C-alpha cells in the first residue's frame, strides 16, 4: 500500500483543508479533525447570533468546496483522508442551536461521527456520486444535517 502524498503547509489552502494539521493524525484523522472543530466552536462560534452562525455555516461550506477541491487536485487524491475541513463544517452544522453544556457537545460529536462513518442513505449516495470539492463537502454537510435533526429531537424529548 503506497503512502498518501503530504500537503504543502506553506500553502494556506492545504493548511486549512487539513484542519490546521489535525488531519495528519495517523489514526482516525476524521475523528481528530472533528475534535479540532470543537475548540473553534467553543471560542468563536457558540455565542454568535443565529443569523451570524448560519452565515458562517454558509460561508465555510462554500469555502470548504474550494479548499477541498484545490487540495485534492494538488495532491491528486480525491478525498484524501487528511482533508478534514469538511468534518469541521459538518460538526458545526450539528452544533446549530445546541443547548449549552458538555453533555450536549459530546452527544453532537457522537451523532456526527456516527453518521459520517456509517454513511447511511442519502449520505452514501453523495459520497459516491458527487465528485470534486462539492462531493468532499456534501456528504459531511448531509451527515451534519441528519445529526442536527437527531440532536434536536433529543433536545425536544428531554425538554
Distance between the termini: 50 Å
**What is the strand content?**
under 5%
How much helical structure, as a percent, in the residues?
A: 55-70%
Rounded to an integer in angstroms, the radius of gyration calculated over CA atoms is 15 Å
Provide the succession of SSEs: HHHHHHH
Summarize the structure.
The chain has 159 residues and is mostly helical.
Please, could you describe this protein's structure?
- This protein has 159 residues and is an all-alpha fold.
- The chain has one domain.
- Helix content is 69%, strand content 0%.
- The protein has 7 helices and no strands.
- The longest helix has 27 residues, at 132-158.
How are the SSEs placed, and which strands pair?
Layout: H1 12-17, H2 29-45, H3 50-75, H4 85-94, H5 102-118, H6 123-129, H7 132-158
Helix pairs in contact: 2-4, 3-4, 3-7, 4-5, 4-7, 5-7, 6-7
Give a quick set of tags describing it:
mainly alpha; 7 helices; globular
